[in-house]
Amino acid sequence: MISCSTNQLQEADFYNVISTSVPIEGGEIVFSDNPPYETGQNITITAVAAPNYKFSHWEGALTGLEVSKQLVLSNNIEVVAFFIPLERFAQQNIVLYNEQGIDHSGYIFMMENGQKNAYLVNHEGEKLKEWAFEERFGNDIEITPSGDLLACFKSSNPVITFGGFGGVVSLMDYTGKELWRFEVNTENEIAHHDATQLPNGHVMIMVWERITELQLETAGQFPGHDIFLEKLIEVNPQTNEIVWQWRSWDHMVQNTAADNDLYGQLSDFPNKIDLNHSDLENGDWMHANGIFYDAATDLVYMSVNFYSEVWVIDHSTSSEEAKTSQGGNYNRGGDLVYRFGNPSLFENTIAPQFLFNNHHPSIVPNNYPGNGNFLIYNNGSNLEQSIAYELVLPTFSTNSMQNYIAPEIKWSFTNLDMYFDKISGLQRLPNGNTLICEGDYGYWEVSAQGEVVWKYDGLGKSFWRPYYYLKSDSRLLKLNLN
Q1: 481 with 143: CB under 8 angstroms?
Q2: Fewer CB in a 10 Å sphere around the end CB: N or C, the chain?
């Protein structure tokens, strides 16, 4: 009699769930526990879309649009998960969509390289906000913490016209109305590529400046033409005053003319820059292409394309100290605090070169996986293969270059289909994914495990670099996206 009662209890107290995916190839239904289920048992049912499908809704014993559902069983039930294919929910730019792998917490800010259009895009490829400007980018545009736009534009009458030239830096409100404009465009210098807003509201601008043949002759160099080197200026938009500047010309070394200025062995002066590294006839000597300001350390990171390096510059110096080799938090003045990517330029034979043209320096934000690590896009001109790098940099000191420690490669991603020798970049996302811009193609989103979870094809358009803004970011409130 006891045995009979037990069998009757089991029949009454255990249940099953019949699940169906529509279409079958659209995805699967995953259960938090294996059947059969006891009466009153709480289980979670999740619809997992296959690549290039998206969950739509539940039918049967469940209803609603939530991917995961919790329920308490009291009888046998049937649930149906409906999925929709990529072509029904995404723009034609989206060629890969992994719903479970994507970081859905934000939007991608895209700017067409050297053109006039920028837009904020969701993962379905929908343009949530578009801007069309009267001037062409030269090159960067970003949304500032206050929700304004800071953009580099190309001057209409430039004298210096290397790739990435600008001449104009503009601060605009979210509608594109100009609030401030600053021009660096003469026969001797021009703003180029990148500008960034500092926490105090000042704007740091990259500038090419002319170094004449006469100046070069004092250093025993005879290229037969003027050259153009890098300069950084910090401008107060309230007064248009240049309140700080750094010039690479103040920190050069040459090892070919012992009786002339700037002479020294490269290995003896690793904090200085080899004047003889370039020899381009057009005079575009360094072609830096991006800066990142780290407020926590008051350091500037500059991506220097033709040197295949990143230079670390101490912004805590005064402008006078920045001309010298003393002063600032690291007592190096304007000499390089640290550099990496191509150690042969200071005759270091222990650390290998790993950058071969590079773009978009940045540091992973706090509270993001890998926070404090450094990101750089290696264009990979040596092998025609681009690589996205996450690096752990050593702790800097006064003697960082004398006791050189190369960066540790923490994470990297490459793909046989990912290569462009210009522009491009990457940004870490909150869930640990990395958003990569392959300049002549579009955008990739890659998981920490190296899985490609999303791709955006520009359909012939090229893009400068990636920016990603959280949906909850206050700077997007003015856009009224919802």
Answers
A1: no
A2: N
437 is in which domain, residue-wise?
Answer: 94-479
Alpha helix stretches (DSSP H) within 233-308: none
State the pTM of this model. Answer: 0.95
Helix (H) or strand (E) holding 185: none
The residue whose two tokens read 């619809």 is 47
Asked if residue 197 and residue 175 are part of one domain, the reply reads yes
CB within 8 Å of 1: residues ≥ 6 apart:
none
Same domain, 38 and 126: no
Closest-CA residue to 282 (of 453, 143, 162): 162
- What CATH number does the domain containing 165 carry? 2.130.10.10
> In the prediction, which pLDDT does 475 show?
93
- As a whole number of angstroms, the distance between CA 248 and CA 150 comes to 25
Q: Please give the C-alpha separations between residue 13 and each of 9, 16, 26, 78, 83, in angstroms, as whole numbers.
A: 6, 11, 33, 17, 32
Q: Any idea which residue has 């649009």 for tokens?
A: 65
The residue among 24, 58, 85 that closes a domain is: 85
Question: Residues 331, 448: one domain?
Answer: yes
Q: What gap in Å lies between CA 158 and CA 94, rounded to an integer?
A: 37
Q: 101 and 80 in one domain?
A: no
Q: What is the pLDDT of residue 314?
A: 98
